[in-house]
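Posting here for the record, re: phosphoenolpyruvate.
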Amino acid sequence: MSRKFFVGGNWKMNGDKPTIDGIIEFLENGPLDPDTEVVVGVPALYLEYVRDRLPKNVCASAQNCYKVAKGAFTGEISPAMIKDIGLNWVILGHSERRNIFGEDDELVADKIAHALDEGLSVIACIGEKLEEREAGQTEEVVYRQTKAFADKIKDWSRVVIAYEPVWAIGTGKTATPKQAQEVHKKLRQWLWDNVCPSVSKGTRIIYGGSVTAENCKELAKAADIDGFLVGGASLKPDFVQIVNANAGN
Ligand code: PEP
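Prediction output follows.
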């Protein structure tokens, strides 16, 4: 089953209108590989601004949303609101949400289930911390995180899993293609064993953690790496090279 290469940008809490205009300019100039799906994660306040300016081949995504449609949840946004402004993507379970804002597996799973029920597509993030890797717990952690939401997912066609080892995010320490492929392959096997073969074959598993224009081509060659989630480099023109990392593979 062929899986369309997927590159997400995660702008995090960065950007103002002039910076965003610059990003939109390099996305417009591209050229972006038409065989890659491109989605950029935008601070909520700028979603509509970006929506109105992005080239047609790039979608805007929210970076977070809550687990219910509306109510007394000051500061939150809901999947219904994201849909209401005509957008279809959200990043959930990012390690910064888990580790800075204390989101646990259960909350992340509830958010993913609700976002999917409301019709959004989800980039669902998982990944182990450095101490967990060093303690030999990588598999246990990523399986536990995946199981928490897998148990609640009815429609996998709108799910992209982002494997992002926390020790590689924003640190300049990228997982080697071998390290990343090893985990991606195990995750695909986990989906085969615990969900079903078609979900295992069809779900995109993307890698995130200090992906750059320099290391993206080697990573993209790995059989089970179906794209990237890119933080820092998604704010720079280098992002175009990362989007095009799979061209010719
Ligand atoms: C991220 O924020 O998801 C990420 C992978 O960041 P960076 O590329 O900067 O490591």
